[in-house]
């Protein structure tokens, strides 16, 4: 196969797009959800984004006074078979430690009541908008889990793909002579509208 | 059919040319989100607020929140020659109005006890501008340009789906690329399914 630079750019443009298609669908749909948040909230009513109680139970473990809040959270999540990405809202010495377990198919909120040694487990019901938004907001390499770091890496790949689509798209546009005028007009219009909005709002 | 092929190619291309700035902004801002630590100083705080002025201002705080509060904020802004999309919140006798702006947002703080209105502006920083461009969504704000921005957010999202649809069509029309194309598409689907199951 004769792989010219032009063909290499076209193929890379396409194969990168095919690989990241699922993420682009997620970002496009969740973008629509975020842009029409009021309508979506109205559609689902008061229960939108609310947590529902799953159970309340005793927690058999104890922690030393100097235990780190993330260590406490990690141990509780392991106990509940909910290991995975999480964040903690309160300090370790607070009477209440709130653990947010951000799983794709349902976010859990676990409240650890230290004096009583009890756990309150709540879950956000799975609905499409919150599922999409959770995936939209997931990023970074801070979480100490392979799957979370892999997601962060894919987010970087999406960034590389987007920048590559811009550069290769301009290259391909320039190669199609009959499309130069209309392509330039579209780009000028886009940059013009964008510039006006950046300068004014 | 040649005409469909051409139509899809041109739609794919011209929408891409139109939305170049948004594509760049969303990619750059996503890089900032994904590598936040690179863009934060040691304190982890956003750029500081620069004091602009402090004036005497006498307005009655409304009893309720919601639209009454927004109306009052609108009046305070108009009295001081400020316009634009905003958010307002009340904490006791203190009212905070955040006036959105991509480059340098404004914060108005009204102390009803002291009858003082303070204006501060966020220090300019490119990473913050790019992040704000990413985060601005919705049709809820007044002003034509705010709604035009929301329309372009919609257009970008719908266009992304159009790029996917036309891209899949154009890929299918190139039989020599089907093998590797299936591998790329299948690899992506498999990866996201594995990650969704394990995250």
What do you see in this structure?
The complex is a heterodimer of chains A (201) and B (199). Chain A is an alpha+beta fold. Chain A has helices spanning 5-35, 37-44, 69-79, 128-137, 146-175, 180-200; strands spanning 52-58, 86-88, 96-103, 106-113, 118-123. Chain A has a five-stranded antiparallel beta sheet, with helices on one face. In chain A, strand 4 (106-113) and strand 5 form a beta hairpin. In chain A, helix 1 (5-35) crosses helix 4 (128-137) and helix 1 crosses helix 5. The radius of gyration of chain A is 24 Å and the shape is elongated. With 199 residues, chain B is α+β, with helices and mostly antiparallel strands. Helices cover 53% and strands 17% of the residues of chain B. In chain B, strands 1-5-4-3-2 form a five-stranded antiparallel beta sheet, with helices on one face. The longest helix of chain B is centred in the C-terminal third of the chain and has 29 residues, at 144-172. Chain B is elongated. Chain B starts with a helix and ends with a helix. The model of chain B has no long low-confidence stretch (mean pLDDT 93). Chains A and B meet through helix 1, helix 5 and helix 6 of A and helix 1, helix 2, helix 5 and helix 6 of B.
Task: Outline the secondary-structure elements.
The complex is a heterodimer of chains A (201) and B (199).
Chain A: H1 5-35, H2 37-44, E1 52-58, H3 69-79, E2 86-88, E3 96-103, E4 106-113, E5 118-123, H4 128-137, H5 146-175, H6 180-200
Antiparallel strand pairs in A: 1-5, 2-3, 3-4, 4-5
Helix pairs in contact in A: 1-4, 1-5
Chain B: H1 2-18, H2 20-34, E1 49-56, H3 66-79, E2 86-91, E3 94-99, E4 106-111, E5 116-122, H4 126-135, H5 144-172, H6 178-198
Antiparallel strand pairs in B: 1-5, 2-3, 3-4, 4-5
